[in-house]
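G., before I forget:
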Amino acid sequence: MSRVGYLPLGDRLAMSAEPLVRTLVNIPPIRLLLNFLGRFAPGGRGLVILVPYAWLAFFFLIPFVIVLKISVADQIIAQPPYSALYEITEKGYLMIKLNLSNYKFLLDDALYWKAYLNSVKIAFFSALMCLIIGYPMAYGMARAQPAWRNVLLMLVVLPFWTSFLLRVYAWIGLLNNNGIINNILLGLGLIDRPIVMMKTDFAVYVGIVYSYLPFMILPLYTALEKMDMTLLEAAADLGCRPFKAFVTITVPLSLPGIIAGFSLVFIPALGEFVIPDLLGGTDTLMIGHVLWDEFFSNRAWPVASAVAIAMLSLVLVIMFVQNRLQRRAEAA
Amino acid sequence: MTEGKHPEAPVSEPWKDPHATPYIRIQNVTKKFGDFTAVNNVSLNIYQQELFCLLGGSGCGKSTLLRMLAGFEEPDGGQLFIDGQDMAGIPPYQRPVNMMFQSYALFPHMTVQDNVAFGLKQDNTPKSELWERVKAMLEMVKLGSFASRKPHQLSGGQRQRVALARSLIKQPKLLLLDEPLGALDKKLRESTQFELMNIQEKLGVTFVVVTHDQEEAMTLSTRIGVMNAGQIVQVGTPTEIYEFPTSRFVADFIGSVNMFQGRIVDEDNDYVRISSDEAGCTIFINHGVAAPPSAALAVALRPEKIVISREAPADTTENCTHGVVEGIAYMGDVSVYNVRLHTGKLAKVTQPNLVRHADTINWDDHVYLHWHAASGIVLTV
Amino acid sequence: MGGANRSPFVTGWMWAGFAFLYIPILSLVIFSFNSNKLVTVWAGFSTKWYVALMQNRQILDAAWLSLKVGLANATIAVILGTLVALCLARFGPFRGRALLSGLATAPLVMPEVITGLSLLLLFVAMEQALGWPAGRGVLTIIIAHATFSMAYVAVVVQSRLTGMDPSIEEAAMDLGAKPAKVFFVITLPIIAPALVSGWLLAFTLSLDDLVIASFVSGPGASTLPMVIYSKVRLGLSPEINALATLLVVIVALGVITAGILMAHQERVRQRDIQLAIAGNK
């Protein structure tokens, strides 16, 4: 559940906080503080660059080097449970041991392959379903009266401020064998025996679509809202029927939004752990979940690291493709 | 168009005095952005109390030149002197220069008076003096009653005056103005032009104005520097620029002009005769030109300097051609005639509408065009 | 409501979509008032689970811990994220700019399991090599959270900085303010809305994070999501429903307050525009 989709949300929030903050920064103590800082704060480009650079290098870059290192280490029974990459032998030689068996293991064991492909499949179809559900919603919102638009937008954004975990939890109550949906259907006499929905791929799809739908709607809405409506009027004036105008004008113009929304759902869904863990069954294999299990249940740190590196390569490929598509869509 | 300052008016003209020291000295300044040369080897002197306009189209380098004077860009080559001091390496906040920005760049979170006071606060001016000066400055730009408003509570014209007040409060000897009137509507622009000139005269500040609006440049300035493709193509008073352009570019850029290609057939120290197939006549000009005989050149004729008539003038041998009226644009004060000459060239003529119901020239009328021997401008470049 | 050019199909679909978004949340709220221990089988109205929640030390402690982590994380993330944004938006080209930009945006797309795993391995290696941080707990969670939430802050602040008229800062410098002064007195107040929203974003991200915290936390430091997760894994719990309801109420109150304040500000703004138009004459 990486949260790229939060970003459009941040921008919207910043816009609406504007007038409020304007008044805040003029409160005398805050003004004095800022003046004081302006006079005495240590300045200098070097320091401004150095501090975040050092932090990111240390807490983001180096960790990956360590993951890479451990992914080629041996599994041993120790604390921590992996062998050293190099050692100085008795004669003073530096000995480097590279163990690629963890990667070989990933290729040999069908579990990893399945998890890999299944993650891509689930992420892809979830994103597609989000698009199918989200497009008409975003379209309806963008064509609502201006006064309503912000309210509708608020309604899309609002669930984010409640806990992600609890929103997934809500689906357990809905989908359980003795859950709300089954109880209602049984009560109405539509079924005589509960439908099994929990611990299935279906539940995972529902969970992902539900959790990430707003990530799809926001960029779509942004693309559709800024569309020039006179284009459609011009098309109608030239004799184009509404549906055809929608297909030939609206959809191509919202393509950047479609691509952005698709990747905002696809990328985080790929590495999702919570949803398959809580809603999926034992046969719902997803790569994020496999990594978690290798690490926490099997204490197989080297294998988990190898899974992480494999997963990272996949994300990089997807980012690359997405970047190219986005650039092409925006250039068109 | 040139109702502002006349060269005859008692304005000192330091640029004509070889002993005068320029206030700003720009020497061979070049600025590149990647492969693009924004300012190309420009040299220019500007004198104290001048109101100097840098005039040119977008991307001609005028704003870059201004930003180098302010210190926001460092030249890649050449030197800049302000008041005799080399400006290399001096940051904007230490230069004796203030700037008024095209967008006004008012601090949105500060009131009008805080905006104006900002510059003085940086110098740690004593409180009592500071607010006195701010008050006086706001009075001068007629914003006394708006002191505690925020920028977004002001109209465009008021914002412009706040920006002006803010840039003048430190009493700079040099004020740089980037398209100062660009964001105002036409009516407001006209009145503000004169306000700006009055303030400049009153405070004795040197103004360097960047503009793309030739009318604005004509009205405001003591001198204009016309820029094109990173270079200054001509420097002169508004009259000089309009009446004596030195290149086809300037003639064409300032006002409108009829350009006739031709070559010299006869010349002496005090006259020149040019035969032009495009004009369909011989053009006589009553001053000599420095051009090699029979060199290809162009004669520029301003539309208002051509007289249009249905009857042939007394002398039709020189400076007179004829054609058919193809179009008339009535502008109120003047009318613009598009005349297709017998040579096929289209000429533009403007005539003031002196009488209300005149027996006017009509479409498809056969007309004669003639002009005075002093009207033609010979251009070799 | 309803605008021009919108078919009933689109309107109906839209409201069905909103129902899909809100029914699960609503179901949490409704069944939190169910007296039955079997959460989804209605047995009458009761508020006893709220009482039970208030007496559940484990949940309360975890909530308090999460709050502390969230506050510290958001503050660090805003400072670091703003510095990153400043480097990227204002410093022009400098050596290593591309790497910084990459490092600052990578956490956005990085699957959380990877971020969590790599940071844990770092902390283990550090403890081996340097003896610091001794064991894992609140401190390591804060560092981990700040590392990924600063990326979000950086993006929000950077978009604000690039959207700002650059001549405003130049004007301040032109009037004699040194760069540090320009930043604190001019830039910071103008981008403050982005800082506030970045702070809230970082706070929410931290409060919401289960995966990374699970990796880098140690014994005795369980955040609220970790406690919720351990309970939810075992099945439905009415106390969790009560907790969810409280969260929804807090968020709703916050949104309504913000809405009222914003409507007020909008009225002031409209009045200002009228004033400006009147001043034109």
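The mean pLDDT of chain C is 88. Residues 137 and 217 of chain C are 5 Å apart (CA to CA).

More on Monday.
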